Amino acid sequence: MVLGDYQNTEEEKIYKILLSIICLYCEDGLLLDHVDEEFKKICGESIPYKKFGASSLRSWLVTLPEIYIVRDLYNREVLIQQSKKSMHIKEMILKQKKCAGKVPHVRNDFRNYNFYQRKKGYHQRPLPEGSFVHASINNPAVNDYEKFSTFCKLECMLPLFYKHQALGDDFFLDIADNKLGYYVPDTGIKQCGLCVSGQTIAQLLQRVKESEMIAPRVIVMIGFQDLLMGNNINNMIYDLKQLITELKNKNARVTLVTIPPSPKLPNSRKIRDRLCIYNQAIMDYSWSSDLKCNVIDMHRIFHQEQSTFRRDFDRLSKVAKNDQYKVFSDYGRKIFLTTLKTCLKEQLEAGH
């Protein structure tokens, strides 16, 4: 490939995107096996190297100027770029990463956005030998049943979001696992306390009834799985009322959260109507005479962010189809967590 002969062509644009991605990895280099994966995350499609006459991705990459394939300390092939002409690209990206709150806008025909957040070189490397020692695995545990039993009861009240016990399904579980560092098992049922992946309202109600300890403040977001399963909307509203009643009987102050849009929900008129009815039933509890609850209208907040959220949402809708546990994008997760922090903090400061 000679760049002078391919100005403003598709190959030229893809080449520039690759340069930008490689710059993020600095001296570490980008693993050759991850090149197509990183490109797909940014552009939504694989590198069309066959269109440029190459039989493989590697055979096309070696023809690109300023990009070199070398081997790292672990004998893996990585891509690096070396050129005086391209140094300004690296400097520009590094400056943008240091500017907090500033989002760089890169124009191209491949929907290139948010690539500045995708540096993953560290966790791809295996840990050095001898960097950890599991010294206590085979040691006999101290026989303190009372202490262990108390700990297990307290552990059941996790996860806690700003002094509120979270009760719900995949949304809260996603935040607990990916943002707050709570333990969620990789195999088997994905669960943290009373947040369980794929949980329905009726199942959460049963778990609350069986729970020995409930925190004095709880935040509840449930019903997503019921919508996916096509459960009767009247049954959903009834089960929600029973859940709130049970929590009130356990002397818990309840905050409800409406269900935001998710790429996992089918884009159909019937689903949208049922979601609207259910969210309105949640909102009604903000002025209920006997079961009054605090309410966070997360659906409305996401709707207000639609212009910014739309691109990330559309991209994730393609990825999430084959991922059972992915319910919203990185940008959606950021909105969700920021909203929880703001609203729950205000409640605490107001004495709720």
Automatic annotation (TrEMBL):
It comes from the Eukaryota. Pfam families: OSK (PF17182). Transmembrane segments: none annotated. Gene3D superfamilies: LOTUS domain-like, SGNH hydrolase. Residues 10-84 form the HTH OST-type domain. InterPro entries: LOTUS-like (IPR041966), OSK (IPR033447), OST-HTH/LOTUS_dom (IPR025605), SGNH_hydro_sf (IPR036514). This is HTH OST-type domain-containing protein. It comes from Callosobruchus maculatus.
